[in-house]
């Protein structure tokens, strides 16, 4: 059986500002670093065998806070990279609403229909996620794997595992520094979603509207 701990990176300054990040390589804020530390501490007693992360710095840094408890390296997995927001990257929500309002409305109401300008769609992300999950089932069978990724990546993964259409994307919450607990033993099971109790008071400070 595979046990997969699928986490989201800690907060960044752009998360706090409400700015689209996508594949821009932002770093953790001071609070995000604390969230990474808390996540690592909460998983320190878990018998983790391997740690993977998106190549983006915010995910890698979060993973390092966890990996140090187990003496493990953080291995980059490009399939975990956040959705490419394309021309939206670096822009505030208000700026996107002004420049590309119709697409933003569609993104918030029918996300499965949208391709980001010069970027990706959720279906593009799903192809990467499905490839990663298939790899994990064979490569890490019998092991516990920690994978640190991003908001859109995690939501798409949970949609696929739960058998949900991508139209349900916004019905899944993924807070900065959260972890999801999944197993695979002939089929996927979801044991816990968006676990954030380890963050304590840090959770309420970072509750943001998903972009």
UniProtKB/TrEMBL annotation:
Record-listed substrate binding positions: 8-15, 58
Lineage: Bacteria, Bacillati, Bacillota, Negativicutes, Veillonellales
Gene3D superfamilies cross-referenced by the UniProt entry: Phosphoglycerate mutase-like (3.40.50.1240)
SUPFAM superfamilies hit by this protein: Phosphoglycerate mutase-like
Top-level taxonomic group: Bacteria
Cross-referenced CDD domains: HP_PGM_like
InterPro entries, per the entry: His_Pase_superF_clade-1, His_PPase_superfam, PG/BPGM_mutase_AS, PGM_Phosphatase
Organism: Negativicoccus succinicivorans DORA_17_25
Protein name: Phosphoglycerate mutase family protein
One Pfam family recorded for the sequence: His_Phos_1
Active site per the UniProt annotation: 9, 82
Single GO MF descriptor: phosphatase activity
